[in-house]
Amino acid sequence: MTDRATTLTDRYHAMSAADAYIIGFPRHGKVYAVRVSFNELCTCLRESRKSSARGGAYQLRVYIPSVEMMKFIATGRATAIADESELDATFNGKKLNKGDAFEKLVTEKLAGKNWEGHNSVPFYKAGDVNINGEEIQVKFQNAELTNEDTMARAEALA
Predict the structure, then answer these.
(1) What is the pTM of this model?
(2) Edge to edge, what strands does the sheet with 144-147 contain?
(3) Which of 7, 67, 88, 137 is deepest in the core (most CB within 10 A)?
(4) What is the C-alpha R_g of the chain?
(5) Contacts (Cβ under 8 Å, ≥6 apart) of 126
């Protein structure tokens, strides 16, 4: 990870209300969820830039390499929570993206709660879902973790 990425992850972690993270990925027709620490999450981040139409800000996206996916599955850390077709049916034709659909599956299947729609609470106030008293941030493969513009706005509000 570059110094710029390390600085951005450090800023994010310092403000995040999450106690842990659940990251998800598709593999062989199934959708998997795995709980990771922040340090583990950092090993699954890819640096990029938003498009110039979206301001061109430097960003960090969740990217879980295939070898890591296979390790998570082989060690039993990753849990299959749905078929990919269920994930697709959850967001197709609705105003949801795959991240929202994955968050809905995690909320309903792992937390045993009804999903009440996209969580508009900022990352520095709460996680996406509370499981057994822990604030959990939920991210699906290729989701943006944060970007420089988001961090600057969040820090200005703090």
Answers:
(1) 0.90
(2) 45-49, 58-62, 144-147
(3) 137
(4) 15
(5) 17, 119, 135
